[in-house]
Amino acid sequence: MDRKAKAFLKKLMETMSPSGFEGEASQVWQARAKEFADSVRVDVHGNTIAALNEDGKPRVMLAGHIDEIGLMIRYIDDQGFLYFAPIGGWDVQIVQGQRVWIKGKKGKLISGVIGKKPIHLMDPKERESVPKMHDLWIDIGAKDKKDAEKLVDIGAPAVLAYGFEELRNGIVAARGFDDRVGAFVVLEALRYAKEYGIQAALFAVATVQEEIGLRGARTSAFGLNPDVGIAVDVTFATDQPGVDKKRIGEVKLGGGPVIARGPNINPKVFDLLVQTAEEEKIPYQVEGIPYGTGTDANVIQLTRAGVATGLISIPNRYMHSPCELVSLKDLDNAAKLIAAFVHRLSEKTDFTPF
Known about the structure:
The protein has 354 residues and is an alpha+beta fold. The protein has 2 domains: 3-68 and 175-343, Zn peptidases (Aminopeptidase, 3-Layer(aba) Sandwich); 70-160, Elongation Factor Tu (Ef-tu), domain 3, CATH 2.40.30.40. Helix content is 30%, strand content 26%. It has helices at residues 3-13, 23-33, 92-95, 124-128, 145-149, 177-196, 215-224, 245-248, 267-279, 296-301, 328-343; strands at 39-42, 48-52, 59-65, 70-76, 82-87, 99-103, 109-115, 137-139, 157-160, 165-166, 171-174, 201-207, 228-236, 258-261, 285-288, 308-316, 324-327. An 8-stranded mixed beta sheet has the order 1-2-12-3-13-16-14-15, sandwiched between helices. The protein has a 6-stranded antiparallel beta sheet with strand order 5-4-9-6-7-8. The longest helix has 20 residues, at 177-196.
């Protein structure tokens, strides 16, 4: 991965983008897209679409959701403590005791901490149980309700206060890699595709609201009406303690992009992705998914009369936590694989499965 691409990834990961509040991340993505896309626009739902060779055939949609899980302020009590609800799927055990950033009035970032009763004050039964989300609160150091309301509105979003950090061997850590790395990869794929040259019309989409029901991919796919759709998301890396490979399969961090196979995937798309990876000498892994996936690929496949759909996944450790891990090599190889795949498409390419 070149220096400029890594700088873009870091900047993208430093934004806040809970579902329904993706604007800050979208602006960073748009600025990068304008450097090489033929056009860039935002639809009424908030999906950001970068296009290349719009009059080409077939029409190809690349989707990576730019939203992340987050929190929403629902109530402020008389003492100025903020009570919240989850945006997306949280493990409540991770939330306890974390520092947070809240998008306050006029966009000002407000720091806070998530509080709960100290262990010293719990009875034995309380110590053994997992608290409910509504039993936790955010403390911003407010004097009282009036003081808190000067800074934070009801409905304000929040995220855990973690940024981007490089570890060793090309491994990086951040919150929200699920799935801003997907949004990153589809845009990098468009950049590489421009260098390759393509016959297809290519649309890279940073989709919104995936974490609350694949909503952005549903509307953008309907609007773009693609012939082929490739979703890019994260999948569980199983090279860590406590994961049963017999149930999940084997996926290694740094082992290459993961090509999904199953009923959500057009078999000819799968075959061409594998063929492309082998011809281009791009490392890859295969994941069997025997049902509709919980990704944008699910709704893209079912758009209008149906779309020939594929799913490329990035191995991810510690998903939906503030310290997700991915490999920079996997990101770059995923973008190159997709670009080389699109390069091979023409108006005559037939994805009828049999």
